[in-house]
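Journal club side-thread
Mid-discussion, someone asked how the predicted structure for our own chain would compare to the paper's figures. Pasting it here so we can look after the session.
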Amino acid sequence: MRIRAAVLRTIGLPPPYTQSRPLDIMELDLAPPGRGEVLVRIAAAGLCHSDLSVIDGSRPRPVPMALGHEAAGVVEALGEGVTDLAVGDHVVLVFVPSCGRCAPCASGRPALCEPGAKANGAGTLLSGERRLTFKAEPVNHHLGVSAFADHAVVAHESCIRIDKELPLELAALFGCAVLTGVGTVINTARVKPGASVAVVGLGGVGLSAVLGAKLAGARQIVAVDLSDEKLAFALALGATDTVNAASPDAAHTVRALSGGGVEVAFDMAGAVPALELAYVVTARGGTTVTAGLPHPDKRMALAPVTLVAEERTLKGSYIGSAAPLRDVPRLIALFKAGKLAVDALLTHRLKLTEINEGFDRLREGIGVRQVVIFA
């Protein structure tokens, strides 16, 4: 079938993207789903820093590539052997298609699926195949999803069936921003009731972490960002204190507010200075968790003696250390129960043709989550 998709053909074009137009809206050929695969009509797809990092070259991927990885839609066709989904099901798409058989999957860590990571890096589906072409030339898939398109073929392992009552434009956010942000707090850091935390970087994932910290019962949530608008947004979502990271006294202020440092600090910005700040504001015996993805060549300054002398922990979190089949339905249930204000994160609705403008807003830190809505 013929589809319309946003395709990245050249990495690293300079901003503003309204002028350089890194994403072309193109007509591609989409092959039918193969064995174990599903055809999904995309209803909504969110713009995320993980997409932007491919556009600007921070996360090199093979091109041409149809971008987009945070989405929700409706199942339209099933490939051979798919028995856990039905035509008409509403699904959230997740960007790590876990095989269920490799060592990480078998140990309960599907976010670290080895075949899934290999396929994502190569720009293929979990099967190793590509279902997208332009004039008979292959086009790469982004993280097994390629959701900036009106239809996508994905591995059935990328699909999480959801309640049809949830608006699909909100459901899309559970595939990355909410799953990663809340999951980092709940699954990776295991924040306890009464803990003090700091969240550095208040994009969609960072603000989801604020929601997660509130859900976990943290007594103090210090929100840190360069944008006063984002800081005010964090307060509305449950942060107890805010600090502008541009202040030369930002680290001192956070430590003063928390009585010497927070028990858990989160870096959600994907920039080395943010991670270094998160580490500095962590108390002795505390934990620093990063879910950011800076350029692989970047390095941070760290005095290793603090890990021992202060019994500090520094750890990473990918897709919120989630088990999506378990966590996505739980998070949606918490939203429906009024315990996760996910709807507050959706600040912009776009047409596919407005996607370059959307990535300019994302790069400039305007708004929180932008979602492309498909008719």
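Post-session note: The CA atoms of residues 202 and 225 lie 6 Å apart.
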